[in-house]
Amino acid sequence: MVKNKEATQGEFVGKIIKVIHSPNKHLIGVEGTVIDETRNTFELDNGKKIIKKNSVLIMNNGKQTITLEGKQLVGKPEDRLKKVKHEL
User: Fold this and answer.
1) Residue 79: left if φ>0, alpha if ψ -120 to 50, beta else—which one?
2) How many Å apart are CA 14 and CA 29, to the nearest integer?
3) Which pTM value belongs to this model?
4) Looking at 1-88, which runs of residues are DSSP E strands?
5) Domain with 65 in it
6) What is the pLDDT of residue 75?
7) pLDDT at 77
8) pLDDT tens for each residue of 38-77
9) How many domains is the chain built from?
10) pLDDT per residue as tens digits for the range 1-47
11) What is the CATH number of the domain that holds 15?
């Protein structure tokens, strides 16, 4: 597994994620496609809402499996995307 800072700054809608750690034990192992993102949550196509702050997620970008710490993802999605655009 790879921890990738660039992955935390991109768009998540349409990506498949899997919960590998959460304070809510019922969410561990939940996998789905992100259909909506708010400042604090991901909503998946299976109806589950994942709170970012205390979760650890994995995402496969086709080349590698990336571990995402939810606390690094907290914030408005548009602000995270603006930050990427300014760095380019």
Assistant:
1) alpha
2) 18
3) 0.80
4) 2-3, 16-21, 31-37, 41-44, 49-51, 56-60, 65-69
5) 2-87
6) 84
7) 74
8) 999 999 999 999 999 999 999 987 788 889 998 888 887 7
9) 1
10) 445 555 666 789 999 999 999 999 999 999 999 999 999 999 999 99
11) 2.30.30.210
Q: Which residues contact 82 (CB under 8 A, 6 or more apart)?
A: none
Residue 16 contacts residue 33 (beta carbons within 8 Å): yes
In angstroms, the Cα distances linking 8 to 25, 26, 46, 66, 72 are 24, 24, 22, 10, 7
Record the tokens describing residue 27, joined without a space.
């969410």
Helix, strand or coil, per DSSP, at residue 69: strand
Sheet holding 41-44, edge to edge: 2-3, 65-69, 56-60, 16-21, 31-37, 41-44, 49-51
Six-digit token string for 3: 């921890």
Closest CA to 27 of 59, 5, 60, 52: 52
Give residue 50's identity as a one-letter amino acid code. Answer: I
